[in-house]
Amino acid sequence: MTPKIAHFLAEHAPATPCLVVDVDRVEARYRSLHDVLPLARIYYAVKANPAEAILRRLVSLGSAFDAASWEEIRMCLDAGAQAQDISFGNTVKKVSAIANAHAAGVTMYAFDCIEELEKLARHAPGSRVYCRLIVENEGAEWPLSRKFGTTLDSARDLMLRARALGLDPYGLSFHVGSQQTTTDAYEAAIARVGMLFTDLAAAGLNLRMVNLGGGFPIRYREDVPEIDRFALAISHAMTEHFGNDLPEMIVEPGRFIVGDAGVVSSEVVLVTRRGLKDDTRWVYLDIGRFGGLAETEGESIRYGIRTPHDGGATGQVAIAGPTCDGADIMYEKAPYALPLDLASGDRIELLSTGAYVSTYCSTRFNGFAPLTEHYI
Amino acid sequence: MTPKIAHFLAEHAPATPCLVVDVDRVEARYRSLHDVLPLARIYYAVKANPAEAILRRLVSLGSAFDAASWEEIRMCLDAGAQAQDISFGNTVKKVSAIANAHAAGVTMYAFDCIEELEKLARHAPGSRVYCRLIVENEGAEWPLSRKFGTTLDSARDLMLRARALGLDPYGLSFHVGSQQTTTDAYEAAIARVGMLFTDLAAAGLNLRMVNLGGGFPIRYREDVPEIDRFALAISHAMTEHFGNDLPEMIVEPGRFIVGDAGVVSSEVVLVTRRGLKDDTRWVYLDIGRFGGLAETEGESIRYGIRTPHDGGATGQVAIAGPTCDGADIMYEKAPYALPLDLASGDRIELLSTGAYVSTYCSTRFNGFAPLTEHYI
């Protein structure tokens, strides 16, 4: 939690649940990534947090943007971004979204299959396209499954087909999974990309861009490797596989830029033991899985928690949200210990909740209004 | 899909994704439940779908309401419900919510622990309270876990304590889990409730109400027992355990009332094979887990699907949503076969999506606007 957020919470005690984001911290994170990877252009993953204050700040810093939908492209344009600095990074796009993006001047599009390529050729003719490879997500705390990406063989065919369809076969992308905590996945993926570059060059196709995706981890409750470790591994791997003929490099950080710039302030609604054999103490908050903490599904992302009683004796707890839904439990297996003095009415903070919280929030499940947001 | 919905979709072809609900069907379902369980008062579980058109229709039919939050209570009052016909059924309530409900005239509250009881005694003094028992959820497709309810022993102590705190120890409740497909769970739970009634009567406490919860199943892709089977089992069990001295009976249906009154109309965004070994065909829709289909988590609720190509040759598919999130997959293991002719741009219908869809929808994940709703 930054001093600015701590001060804001102390001074205003805003109604809970709410998300408070320090936009200066967003800027600092952008700069820190740019410093260690100066050769890579940063395309901020808008889906992590599309708040106008964040987009405007990043525009002022010269960031580019990775958009998941036509609506996100519109948010970027409204915040002052130029169309040529926006990548339409979702491999699954409605025809109407492609047409809108093309009309707005967006020139770069992701794809991973022939059907999408044909849609792009028709509705965004001549555009720069990049093919997403499927890579291992081992080491990621929020892996991306088999939903996206294609094989090396298939990507080769598709890039040749892109040229035949009058598109600009611009580059390749991969995504190692979100909150990726090892550098191995990047190194392995870059090696594959390098092979395909060489192979396609032999077939007369000169790709010019590698999109390294996002996935850079932030610290929740456990240490993660520093960003310079990732930068170093990526730079090494790129040099190893491309020599001095480095292609344009793109990174798409979301969580890394905004994650630790945000804090959720929440009220404890109830603390009780349920009278069951295990005697677990249950803590119920006024925010849960359907109020924005969707990444706690499967207890994947484990947020740090601050309470007014920190320093006192603690005991193991299960932590759940305020709805009548039995699935609205954040942590039941993960080892969470909270102060024994914690009680209904206390205000607590969920740390590093700037990414993937505000937009996952449900419109009104159980009647609860969406999370209020403060950008300071 | 009711003829009215089919007609509406054919005539208006509303922008997708959207939810269309036939309010006459809601009424028919309410009446059918009332017919088979005439002795039970129906408290509609507002969380299933709090649309004003639904609440107004149910008010006109004499329904009572089970609210999960102060906001849901407000929705019911705004739709014309009387405060005495509203139960505040969430066992986890903010103090401010209890105070608001009490001020608005709500007199019935759920609880399952001493801490909540003390909040009620203080902020809703004199109210009727009922204690929620933990029961087996076996047979439920959306079970409710260990988040709610307490043991028989603990409930006994709590009801005596309620009296000591100046509250009205009114009754007991349980919930067998949502989309409960067997009658056994109701029978077992009623037996336990009956025991506790007897036990507390011996201690000088005469409870007057049994809240049987909801959970009545609807047909998705597989047949479920008819509602009269549940009504019969419940009536038998109540008579067996209470004889002629039947307490007030409450049921809290949500899914049963609105589930099959709604249809989601969606556009197919992409159909492709990913070039992987298994050669699965992937179908991407413009609605997914974060656009309202949250109950597909773990592939629990399996909606029926209609396509324009029904009747033609089919093949196994995986079905995913439109976001960049790898978790946004509805069905990958469940056996779904869809027509081989299905293609990008087709409109399809997800059947029986009237319950637990509109409100789970995220505010704007990946930039996508919330599901549009039509009540006809």
Question: What order do the helices and strands come in, and which of them pair?
Answer:
Two copies of one chain form a homodimer.
Chain A: H1 3-12, E1 18-21, H2 23-36, E2 40-45, H3 52-60, E3 64-67, H4 70-78, E4 86-88, H5 95-103, E5 108-111, H6 114-123, E6 128-132, E7 140-142, H7 152-164, E8 168-173, E9 178-180, H8 184-202, E10 209-211, H9 227-242, E11 248-251, H10 255-258, E12 262-273, E13 281-285, E14 305-306, E15 314-320, E16 329-339, E17 347-351, E18 372-375
Parallel strand pairs in A: 1-18, 2-3, 2-11, 3-4, 4-5, 5-6, 6-8, 8-10, 10-11, 13-15
Antiparallel strand pairs in A: 1-12, 7-9, 12-13, 12-17, 14-17, 15-16
Helix pairs in contact in A: 2-3, 7-8, 8-9
Q: What does this entry look like structurally?
A:
2 copies of one chain form a homodimer. Chain A is an alpha/beta fold and 376 residues long. The first copy, chain A, folds into 2 domains: 50-253, TIM Barrel; 260-375, Lyase, Ornithine Decarboxylase, Chain A, domain 1. Chain A is 30% helix and 24% strand. The first copy, chain A, is built from 10 helices and 18 strands. In chain A, the strands form 3 sheets. In chain A, strands 1, 12, 13, 14, 15, 16, 17 and 18 form an 8-stranded mixed β-sheet that branches. In chain A, β2, α3 (52-60) and β3 (64-67) form a beta-alpha-beta unit. Chain A is elongated and about 70 Å long. Chain A starts with a helix and ends with a strand. The model of chain A has no long low-confidence stretch (mean pLDDT 95). At the A-B interface, α4, α6 and β12 of A face α4, α6 and β12 of B.
